[in-house]
Design a protein that fits this description.
Layout lengths: L2 E8 L21 H14 L4 E6 L3 H14 L4 E2 L43 H18 L4 E6 L1 H11 L18 E7 L2 E8 L18
Parallel strand pairs: 1-4, 2-3, 2-4
Antiparallel strand pairs: 1-5, 5-6
Length: 214
């Protein structure tokens, strides 16, 4: 059976000075650091056997795939199933001290963290992401495909595939900005999962200073 690799790439850093939960809102673009992250990934995957590029329709994902498409000479296609999870707190800051959690009217939305009650159910996220991956696998059978998505969808489908519970502490997700989560298929079966961070030194928490244009 053919060996196929599906790379799930989280988009680069977003310009978000207001620190709102932007979710599916339009108008949120990559920061200069985020663009540098996308360019780094393009350098890393330029020699891979990638024959298909697929992206979430949100601006930050489309902007992340652009330098990769240029490096590989491929035209990305959009797939709505790769979009960010819906969230009732979109457009708000989210926190106890100075965010939306200060307001009692929001508390009812936290009543069920296992579904979760504040947004798209985890099971639905996992199902649509798996559908997008299956389409890409068929498209790139025997080769590789790269799909640009978002942290929660990527972590949710990985957790489902690896047999973990879907509800979790967001701080424990292994899915940094511009990271690659790679699924290797033998035919239609996933036989291994790998994780890498091509732009680790560009992450804000890396301690490395970033200068635009450097």
């Amino acid at each position: 059976m053919a060996t196929t690799k599906i790379h799930l790439l989280r988009h680069g850093e977003v310009h978000n000075p207001g620190k709102v939960l932007y979710g599916r809102l339009s108008g949120y673009h990559l920061s200069e650091r985020g663009t540098a992250m996308a360019e780094r990934v393009a350098e890393v995957v330029a020699d891979r056997d990638i024959v298909a590029l697929v992206t979430s329709p949100l601006e930050r994902a489309v902007e992340t795939v652009a330098p990769i498409a240029a490096a590989l000479g491929l035209t990305p296609r959009l797939d709505e199933d790769l979009i960010e999870a819906s969230n009732n707190f979109e457009g708000l800051t989210f926190g106890v001290g100075d965010g939306s959690l200060r307001k009692p009217r929001h508390w009812r939305q936290l009543r069920n963290p296992f579904r979760p009650s504040w947004g798209e159910p985890y099971l639905e996220i996992a199902a649509r992401m798996r559908a997008a991956m299956d389409r890409a696998r068929n498209e790139a059978e025997g080769h590789e495909a790269l799909l640009v998505s978002h942290q929660l969808p990527i972590w949710t489908v990985r957790s489902a595939i690896e047999g973990r519970r879907l509800w979790h502490d967001p701080r424990r997700r292994e899915c940094a900005l511009a990271s690659l989560t790679t699924f290797t298929y033998d035919g239609a079966s996933i036989v291994s999962v790998a994780y890498s961070e091509p732009a680790a030194d560009l992450l804000p928490e890396s301690g490395t200073s970033f200068t635009a244009g450097a």
